[in-house]
Amino acid sequence: MIDVVDLTVRYGVAVALHAVNLTVAEGEMVALIGPNGAGKSTLVNTLSGIQRPAGGTVSISGRLAHVPEGRQVFPDLTVDDNLRLGGWRIRNRDTGPIYEILPGLTPLRRRRAGRLSGGEQQMVAVGRALMARPEVLAVDELSLGLAPLVVADLVRHLRELNADHGLAVLLIEQNARLALDLCSRGYVLEAGRVVAAGTAAELAASPRVADAYLGVAG
Amino acid sequence: MREFLQYLITGVGSGCVFALVGSGLVVVHRVTRVVNFAQGSFAVIAAMTASTLLASGLPHGLAEASAVAVGAGAGLLVGLVAIGRPGTPPGASLIITLGLAVFAYAVEVLIWGDQPRSFAGVPGAVEFGGVRFQAHYLLIIGATAVVFAGTAALFARTDIGRALSACASNPYAARVVGIDIVRMGLLSFGIGGALGGLAGVLVTPIQLVTFDYDVTLIVGGFAAAVFGGLMRPLHTLVGGLLLGVAQSFVAGYGNAAYQMEVALVLLLAVMMRQAARAPAAEQEPA
Ligand SMILES: Nc1ncnc2c1ncn2[C@@H]1O[C@H](COP(=O)(O)OP(=O)(O)OP(=O)(O)O)[C@@H](O)[C@H]1O
Ligand SMILES: [Mg+2]
Question: Residue A10's pLDDT is what?
Answer without folding.
Answer: 96
